[in-house]
Design goal:
By secondary structure, this protein is mainly beta. 0% of the residues lie in helices and 51% in strands. It contains no helices and ten strands. The strands form two sheets. It has a six-stranded mixed beta sheet, with no helix packed on it. Strands 1-3-8-7 form a four-stranded antiparallel beta sheet, with no helix packed on it. A hairpin with a 6-residue loop joins strand 4 and strand 5.
Length: 112
């Protein structure tokens, strides 16, 4: 089974940027789509963005025009470029394949 691992999280100030990576242990093309979720302890997880195998992207209203998802099939990686970050974006970010495979997540903290 192909596994996913996220990276790129960290601490950033309000207005800053981060790029998260979701890298597959095998071919990223094994997935029809990759979802990016985020979750804050005690709250329901939120679907942030989706990238399909054919390059179609979709975003939650809360991140539209600030976040952009892209893919590099040669690197078996899907990226989540986050800009104009706000404290409300603080969460653990996960990528998940359409078969339910999910990585351990990467923590993003946005300071005010």
């Amino acid at each position: 089974q192909v596994r996913l691992v996220e990276s790129g999280g960290g601490l950033v100030q309000t207005g800053g940027s981060l790029r998260l990576s979701c890298t597959a242990s095998g071919s990223i093309l094994a997935f029809n789509f990759i979802d990016w979720y985020r979750q804050v302890p005690g709250k329901q997880r939120e679907l942030v963005a989706t990238m399909s195998k054919i390059g179609f992207a979709n975003y939650a209203d809360s991140v539209k025009y600030r976040f952009a998802v892209s893919r590099d099939d040669a690197e078996n990686t899907v990226y989540l470029q986050m800009t104009s970050l706000k404290p409300d974006d603080t969460a653990r970010y996960y990528c998940e394949g359409d078969d339910g495979v999910r990585g351990p997540g990467t923590l993003v903290t946005v300071s005010s």
